[in-house]
Amino acid sequence: MDKLIIKQSPPLKGEVVISGAKNAALPLLMTSLLTAQPCRYSNVPQLRDISTTQALLKDLGVGVEQQEANTVLLHAAELTSDTASYDLVRTMRASILVLGPLLARLGKANVSLPGGCAIGARPVNLHLEGLEKMGAVINVDEGYVRASVDGRLKGARIFMDIVSVGATENLMMAAALADGETVIENAAREPEIVDLANCLNSMGARISGAGTDKIRIHGVETLNGCDYRVLPDRIETGTYLVAATVTGGHIKCLNAAPETLDAVLSKLQQAGAVITVGKDWIELDRTQTPLTAVKVKTAPHPGFPTDMQAQFVALNAVAHGTGVITETIFENRFMHVPELQRMGAEIALETNSAVSKGESKLKGAPVMATDLRASASLIIAGLVAEGETHISRIYHLDRGYEAIERKLGGLGAKVSRASE
Ligand SMILES: CC(=O)N[C@H]1[C@@H](OP(=O)(O)OP(=O)(O)OC[C@H]2O[C@@H](n3ccc(=O)[nH]c3=O)[C@H](O)[C@@H]2O)O[C@H](CO)[C@@H](O)[C@@H]1O
Ligand SMILES: C=C(OP(=O)(O)O)C(=O)O
Q1: Ligand 1 atom closest to residue 166's alpha carbon, by position in its atom list
Q2: SUPFAM superfamilies from the xrefs (predicted)?
Q3: ipTM exceeds 0.85, yes or no
Q4: Which of 68, 91, 217, 366 fits a 20 to 30 Å CA distance from 396?
Q5: Cis peptide before 114, with omega less than 30 degrees from 0?
Q6: 30, 101 Cβ separation under 8 angstroms
Q7: Would the pTM count as exceeding 0.90?
Q8: Is 329 marked as binding a ligand?
Q9: Nearest CA to ligand 1 atom 23
Q10: CA-to-CA distance for 247 and 269, rounded, in angstroms?
Q11: Band of the pLDDT at 116, cuts 50, 70, 90?
Q12: Helix (H) or strand (E) holding 172
């Protein structure tokens, strides 16, 4: 197993090119299941979750052709299986996103229930209840969701009592091929939802309202292929911006989507960063300003993203003043706190808040990555900790950050990978 070694580094400096968004690319690749025509996706990041998705799609009968490093052609001329097995699903929760498309295209699907993971229970009831409203018969049996529908799925009005990104995506894909109109109320408004709707519409779907809490999908009988470019990764962008802020650096993120990062940029400004944005770039300078702790509460988009919470816990640990980070989306997303404490961070966990005293003098230590964004927070802490930080279990990191050592190294960070 690989580990990452981070040495105390100079302030980050230079340019970094942002990759396509993992959380947009995963549902986008699933749209290939909805059509017999070829679908070409570009700006697809090279990540473990993407190779898992490709393996899953291949298993269902989808032709997968890697055209260039970040471009893939998927062709589901005919699907040969309706089953997403536990072996593939267990490593990636987004696998549940094959359920809606399989049901819409084949009228049946067997998808292993994704297990619990380090950040919370993450049930899939909203996905299942929405599909049932559209006429699917669903049983959960031996760890599998077994779903079928007689004929086509039917348009329905679906109200979600919790805002769910994945359920909105699954239902939007299923409804694209349903008979009649589906209205999703209290829908997620994340930029990745808008990206998925744009891709589906480019395939001939009739979706309006994506990006608001009410999405209307007028089902069509068939969809065409697509040639679609994945949205830039706002969480990867935010992670480099926090790393630059914490180290007192000056960086420019290229190929970014500033309009997807309002809540994060506003908190970074409060923390002391000077930020300038252009159409597809963000420049951040904290060479001349002090670092101040911030108060953050996670919320569905356009609120502050839970996927940026761990990085801000690291920021607050070393900033001046008391910082409070409150997590409202996942019930167990503070596994990075004990690891940061091992590095000397003075942080107290109070129910669903991480309260930091500020100006902790961090020291390198062996620490363990417990999930994807927790890994990112440990890297950020390692950049300013005295000595060396050894982060184990970095397979979590490889799920979501393309070429992270190369990108951080290009900004002057002292990061290397070694086998344990
Ligand atoms: C691949 C992907 O895009 N992952 C993102 C997606 O995950 P994901 O789509 O899994 O997250 P959801 O938006 O569904 O989860 C939000 C909340 O709803 C709950 N819930 C969800 C579904 C359900 O059927 N029942 C239920 O109770 C969850 O446990 C959680 O508390 O959105 C999360 C919230 O922004 C992000 O942290 C993840 O990075
Ligand atoms: C939690 C995340 O991803 P996933 O939903 O794929 O586990 C994430 O991207 O931070």
Answers
A1: 9
A2: EPT/RTPC-like (SSF55205)
A3: yes
A4: 68
A5: no
A6: yes
A7: yes
A8: yes
A9: 124
A10: 15
A11: low
A12: helix 165-176
